[in-house]
Amino acid sequence: MDIMDTSAESVRFALRGAVQIFSEESLQQRLTSGKQLKIKLGADPSRPDLHLGHTVILRRLKALQNMGHEIIFIIGDFTGMIGDPSGKSKTRPKLTLEQTRENGESYMQQVAKILDTQKAKIVYNSEWLNKMNFADVINLASKYTLARTLERDDFTNRFRENQPISLHELLYPLAQGYDSVAIQADVEVGGTDQTFNLLVGRELQRDYGQTPQEVITFPLLVGLDGKEKMSKSLDNYIGIAEPPAVMYEKAMKIPDTILLDYFILTTDIPEEEAKTAMQQDIIAAHKIYAAEIVKMYHGEPAVAAAMERYKTVASGAIPQNMQVVEIPLADYAEKGNKIGLLDLIRITGLAPSNAEARRLVQGKGIKINNETATDFQAQLDCQNLVLSKGKNKFVQVNFT
Amino acid sequence: MDIMDTSAESVRFALRGAVQIFSEESLQQRLTSGKQLKIKLGADPSRPDLHLGHTVILRRLKALQNMGHEIIFIIGDFTGMIGDPSGKSKTRPKLTLEQTRENGESYMQQVAKILDTQKAKIVYNSEWLNKMNFADVINLASKYTLARTLERDDFTNRFRENQPISLHELLYPLAQGYDSVAIQADVEVGGTDQTFNLLVGRELQRDYGQTPQEVITFPLLVGLDGKEKMSKSLDNYIGIAEPPAVMYEKAMKIPDTILLDYFILTTDIPEEEAKTAMQQDIIAAHKIYAAEIVKMYHGEPAVAAAMERYKTVASGAIPQNMQVVEIPLADYAEKGNKIGLLDLIRITGLAPSNAEARRLVQGKGIKINNETATDFQAQLDCQNLVLSKGKNKFVQVNFT
Fold it and tell me: Most buried among A9, A347, B90, B282, using CB within 10 Å?
């Protein structure tokens, strides 16, 4: 076994940004005991595209892993396979075992960008939950009261507002909590929206005669809109697999008011350093953050190009490093070396269909050599040109 | 298959005393369709001593069986085996599979005094409930909302009064309701206290694509105290296995105000006939009822003796038909043909111990030849005598 890192500095770093700890004292004790701990994270495999929001917790796990602790990812395939039997939630479609496993693998591949997945343990909770029979479920359910369950915010609200709560929904927190019993977790981490479920795990462990796990909750990263929690469906996210230029540009758009949270929750830059930078020059601070993120996910060499590209786009000029599409001139000889604008847009991949290409032109979204195209019926000479869509998609078209 | 009795008179007789029917119209339709129906009764095998309270429903089932329908007894061994995992209810101890089966057999032996158990079907619900896994339970639980479950009276009250309700308790009604799905019940009967559970079965059948069962509820017979529902633990019961004289005497004690219910719910005597008898002479009406009950459970010949015994006891005289205990005179020759009063009380079975025998004498509860014994240290001559305890326990002691 590795020698455990129990230094106060490492403990502080692992807990950076934590919102609540149950309980602080006993967590400190365990983290400095020199014993390797089992740290649990419940993963939702149904949405495998990771963004910076997901990295908030993953980076803390990385820190804990670096200290020598064992990170255990619980892929919630059990509930995934059941879906929502009442059919009320569209966000929880029924998945096959294979789909769930594929999602789980894709999820872990992305996690590998943040921490060492070889050292981590990945388990599927159907392993134990599928083995439980009705009597086991009754036994499990007997450990928890209705009143406690209804303390969960969303249940409280729905119950008060007379919105239906199906009985099976009350069982999900128990299933998730039982995961902690099954793996004998020492610590569970999660977003603040998971506090209730994490505490269920803690209490169930007590009922099953185990030492209750420590619970650490972390904030939900607010998205680029400055309002909602970062999510792909709200399109307010920075994906960790996005190209350097996109990442850099999106990072520049983070509202000033939440930039410090991004520093603290998604980078290693010390809080004081970030604060000082922001006080001195907020634009420069954004650039420091953007460069840091690109470096983290694409490496140092990608940073300069991303910065250059951002500058060029921001100034409205045509950037140097752009996609090149070559079109055989011979194909248009019959048509007098003319090409329809809509065909060109489609061929270069700026639109999937002529209809969509027309909408783009009508919406003033297409430029030819940096001048807005106005006539969607235009027939262009087959000469090399730069075609662009919006502010940051540029294609160099070469007729050969 | 037997020819089904669909006469209006038989239908009326089968429903005699019913409190609620869901739904009346469709039940009438099914009972007169000529099709054999599956009639479900959920039996509790943990309290197998049957009394008149249990017969209220069993007698209706007999009427339905006589019409040609199939009676299905569901022995709830599943919940019996689980017990109350929260340990809050002392009335639900955990039973082994063997205990539950034994209880079930003892229950059916007693049921045989009322209807033809050879024609009835007996099933144990662990057959299907034990096969359900966690996913099946979640699927089952998704069919029912919390709000509906909390409509059950006892839940409503406990929830309002902030008394804890364990989550597993919410699952029991579903398990019982699922029994109806498993056997595809056409009709379920039960006491008015079971109305909620019976309706759950009805709704679950609908969810599982079956024709919902008809539900018929019957009153809970009030016990001899005139207040509480008849039960062995409250000692306000008439057991169907009790001796004729005990049965007769207890029947004479039924409060006048509820005697008509006893006629309607526990005998075949027509309501009008019972009413007329009660109006003419309430004591005579009691005698009619008492004689009827003794006849039903012990046969016509037992009635005269039970009546005679009752008359004698009521007049304070020593009855003719009493238990005889023979004591070998030789055993007391050494002691000068004397026997201690306490020994005598114990030997005749009127008390389990000398200490209890002493308490009886001190409480003026023992008579020798119809005279109250006062000295618990008395040494009696070994001569034949009548020993009695209270008003109705008499023993003829013969020294031989």
Answer: A347
Q: Of how many residues is chain A composed?
A: 400
Q: Which of A78, A129, A167, A176 to mutate against chain B (most B CBs within 10 Å)?
A: A167
- With a cut of 90, say whether residue B79 has pLDDT above it: no
HSE value, Cβ hemisphere, 13 Å, CA-based, for B355: 0
DSSP 8-class letter at A281: -
Which residues of B lie inside 8 Å of A (Cβ-Cβ)? 78, 81-82, 84-86, 129-147, 149, 159, 162, 164-168, 170-172, 174-175
A167: which chain B residues are within 8 Å (Cβ-Cβ)? 141-142, 144-146, 149, 170-171, 174
pLDDT of residue B94: 66
- The tokens for A311 are 């500058």
Cβ-based interface (< 8 Å): residues of A facing B = 78, 81-82, 84-86, 129-147, 149, 159, 162, 164-168, 170-171, 174-175
Q: Nearest chain A residue to B78 by CA: give it.
A: A135
Chain A positions in Cβ-Cβ contact with residue B131 (cut-off 8 Å): 133
Question: d(Cα B398, Cα A274) in Å, to the nearest integer?
Answer: 108
Chain A residues in contact with B141 (beta carbon < 8 A): 166-168, 170-171
Q: Check CB contact under 8 Å for B132 and A129.
A: no
- The CB-side HSE value for B44 (13 A sphere, CA atoms) comes to 12
Q: Which of B335, B333, B313, B334 is nearest to B322 (CA)?
A: B313
Structure confidence at residue A94 (pLDDT): 66
Nearest-CB residue to A134 (from B137, B162, B166): B137
Task: List pLDDT tens digits, range B99-114.
Answer: 888 888 888 999 999 9
* 3-state SS record for chain B: CCCCCCCHHHHHHHCCCCCEEECHHHHHHHHCCCCCCEEEEEECCCCCCCEHHHHHHHHHHHHHHHCCCEEEEEECHHHHHHCCCCCCCCCCCCCCHHHHHHHHHHHHHHHCCCCCCCCCEEEECHHHHCCCEHHHHHHHHCCCEHHHHCCCHHHHHHHHCCCCCEHHHHHHHHHHHHHHHHHCCCEEEEEHHHHHHHHHHHHHHHHCCCCCCEEEEECCCECCCCCCECCCCCCCCCECCCCHHHHHHHHHCCCHHHHHHHHHHHCCCCHHHHHHHHHHCHHHHHHHHHHHHHHHHHCCHHHHHHHHHHHHHHCCCCCCCCEEEEECHHHHCCCCCEEEHHHHHHHCCCCCCHHHHHHHHHCCCEEECCEECCCCCCEEECCCEEEEECCCEEEEEEEC
Q: Is B87 left (phi over 0), alpha (psi -120 to 50) or beta?
A: left
CA nearest A399: which of A332, A328, A310? A328
Question: Which residue of A86, A132, A159 is in closest CB contact with B134?
Answer: A132
Residue A217 has pLDDT above 80, yes or no: yes
Whether the per-residue pLDDT at B170 is higher than 70: the answer is: yes
Q: Is B167 close to A147, i.e. CB distance below 8 A?
A: no
- Using an 8 Å CB-CB cutoff, list chain B residues near A159: 146
Rounded to the nearest angstrom, the minimum Cα separation between A141 and chain B is 5
ipTM: 0.72
pLDDT the model gives residue A124? 92
Chain segment B103-148, per-residue pLDDT in tens: 888 889 999 999 999 999 999 999 999 999 999 999 899 888 898 8
Digit-coded pLDDT (tens) for A347-377: 898 998 899 999 999 989 898 877 889 999 9
pLDDT tens for B374-390 read 999 999 988 888 888 88
What pLDDT digit, counting tens, does each position of A71-119 carry? 999 998 887 776 666 555 545 566 777 788 888 888 899 999 999 999 9
